[in-house]
Amino acid sequence: MKGTKLICAALSGMLLAALAVPCSADETHTAETYEGDGFTLSYQLEDAGAAVVGCSSDAVNVTVPDTLGGKPVTSVEESAFNSCGTIETVTLPDSVTLIGDGAFFGCTTLKSIALPKSLTKIGYQAFYYCADLESINLPESMQSIGDQAFLACLKLTTVTLPASLTSLGEYAFEGCEGLTEIRVDPENQIYCDLEGVLFNEDMTRLIKYPDQHAGDSYTLPDSTTAIANWSFTGAKNLVSLDLNKATEIGKDAFYICTALEQITIPEGVTVLPGTTFGGCIALKQVQLPDSLTELGDYCFVNCPELKDITIPGSVSTIGNYALGFTLDTETKTTAKVDGFTIHTRVGTAAASYAKENDIHYEKQGAKTGLVLVIAGGVLLLAGAVILAIRLRGDKQNNAPEAATDAAKEQETPDAPEKE
Hints:
By secondary structure, the chain is α/β, with parallel strands linked by helices. The chain has four helices and 31 strands. The strands form eight sheets. Strands 1, 2, 3, 5, 6, 8, 10, 11 and 13 form a nine-stranded mixed β-sheet that branches. The protein is elongated.
């Protein structure tokens, strides 16, 4: 439940923007109505065919007819069903090629929809927060899926992308808490999957690791150098993760990976943007590379088990509340993590961040200095010993000659007189 609240909070900005999607039909055309079995559809006639633009709010099971007003139904337009709070099933005719932006936005009771074989495009937020939608069968005709198209479809478990798909929008399957795998038709030329994890075709970029993917550990393939925005967000089962040869990490990539305990950022990564590890409540150990230059705002926010971190001197920028803070997503208030310590060198951005935020930090290099002093002393002592040995050797070598000379110059001393 806590993870769900955090995800909802993270998506709140998207949701507020989405609420701006209009619920009314395009007023430039006169809407006609169709009375079905327990539902009413609104539609408009266009040159290409009929477009469904609205549905009665109390509809439960809807079957859209092949034709409306004597023309084939070719599209379900923007926001057409987004006011249908009780709808459970929808069947679309094979003539439909488009499901528009927000067409089924917020249909939280929608359990299934039969997509037509003719469908080529699913728009932006088309099925946003269809919380009860358990499966979706994308037809072989599908070419484009918009941004956030299936975002927060909480019960969606599996998805297969067809060979025809050429464009998949950002965050298309974010917040799908039950998603175990994303499969891709082997004939697809743009995308592929490896054991249910979504990549681009040559596997250089990891696009999406499903929230409920099996296993508690994962290692990126050798070919993968980039991790997309939100790619691991909400991956609940991950305890350990090997980023292997990755050099680019996207925004919020590991947000709310609530079981993740430790992470090593590979050499070559320069930026950890945004809330990269925000909400990783079990995270205890982080190792950062010398190549790192920037930590974004809230980078490690709400990581209460992370008690200390070493920041390399290469880091020149640290964003607001990036380290050592928790954030209440409801009240928007922050608090410091108890006992948090930053290890860094004097004069670094991390040292300044610690001072500005009244966070305890230990000066990295103090122990090194002690070692150098000790080492210097050892070297000095060693030198003295060597010098002493050499001097002693010289003295011993010269002793016989010196003794002979002394004997020549000195007479044998008289014995002491008896009293």
